[in-house]
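User: Just a sanity check before I run the rest of the batch. Below are the structure tokens for the first item. I only need the designed sequence back.
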């Protein structure tokens, strides 16, 4: 069985899609207060694999079931990499990271439930998702172009300017998880469970975390705009960075709105969605900055 590059590319995109989707559904579990709808793992309640017919149990179990959907294209990416024609070892190694990441997420999610949604477990659960998305984007990028179509960019200033944005981007993501861990959406409201929160600064912890997160995000946004102007001045492709800047602007608007409205769950969920999409756009911009693709240069 031979797998064409186009078919393999579709599998890689499917893996990226489902790994992104489960971030959205995981955030929905927490923001609906359903994090302990299934209070045990791997069974739902210690004796039953499936939950009783109540909303929060079904929401949490549904997110667990999503892991099966996620694993299908991730495992398929590994298997089909061996049958891809022409065979490429780099795709085999990259694709192998996907099922490893999915399994790590499942195990970590189990510990998160067992430790009653303690903040450090929830934070790492989200950050593991962001690491998995790095592998997914790398696989999609490499599967999209053959090695002979990619040459290193000669503009090192533009390349490293975009790459440098990964630091404030990651710091902003991390700061957001701290703010959420100090906020009212602990994940246990729907089932009446009290969940530990981050209380480093007592009653002022949430305000402290929001202010730091806002400052980091502002720096990230201003830096991204600065890099956009740098790329434009040097004649580089600005399309990916334009997406990053637009998403950051939307994030800023949503962040201000959720703060003013005292953190309604629906807007917090939108904030998580936009944060994930911004991370993906930044990863793609980073990949694009490091090489010159003949097709793109020609256009």
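Assistant: Here's the designed sequence for the first item:
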């Amino acid at each position: 069985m031979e797998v064409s590059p186009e078919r393999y590319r579709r599998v890689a995109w499917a893996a990226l899609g489902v790994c992104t989707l489960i971030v959205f559904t995981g955030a929905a579990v927490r923001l609906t207060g359903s994090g302990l709808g299934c209070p045990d793992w791997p069974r739902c309640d210690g004796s039953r694999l499936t939950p009783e017919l109540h909303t929060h149990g079904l929401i949490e179990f549904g997110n667990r079931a999503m892991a099966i959907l996620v694993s299908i294209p991730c495992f398929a990416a590994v298997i089909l990499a061996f049958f891809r024609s022409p065979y490429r070892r780099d795709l085999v190694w990259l694709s192998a990271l996907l099922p490893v990441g999915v399994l790590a997420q499942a195990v970590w999610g189990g510990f998160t439930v067992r430790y009653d949604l303690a903040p450090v477990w929830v934070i790492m659960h989200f950050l593991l998702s962001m690491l998995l998305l790095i592998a997914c984007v790398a696989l999609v990028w490499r599967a999209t172009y053959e090695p002979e179509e990619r040459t290193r960019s000669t503009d090192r200033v533009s390349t490293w300017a975009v790459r440098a944005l990964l630091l404030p981007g990651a710091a902003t993501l991390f700061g957001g998880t701290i703010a959420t861990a100090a906020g009212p959406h602990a994940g246990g409201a729907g089932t009446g469970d009290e969940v530990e929160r981050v209380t480093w600064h007592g009653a002022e912890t949430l305000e402290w975390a929001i202010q730091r997160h806002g400052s980091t995000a502002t720096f990230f946004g201003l830096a991204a705009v600065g890099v956009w102007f740098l790329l434009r001045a040097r004649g580089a492709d600005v399309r990916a960075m334009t997406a990053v800047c637009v998403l950051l602007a939307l994030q800023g608007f949503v962040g201000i709105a959720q703060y003013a409205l005292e953190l309604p769950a629906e807007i917090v969920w939108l904030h998580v969605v936009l944060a994930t999409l911004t991370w993906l756009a930044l990863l793609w911009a980073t990949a694009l900055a490091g090489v010159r693709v003949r097709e793109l240069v020609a256009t």
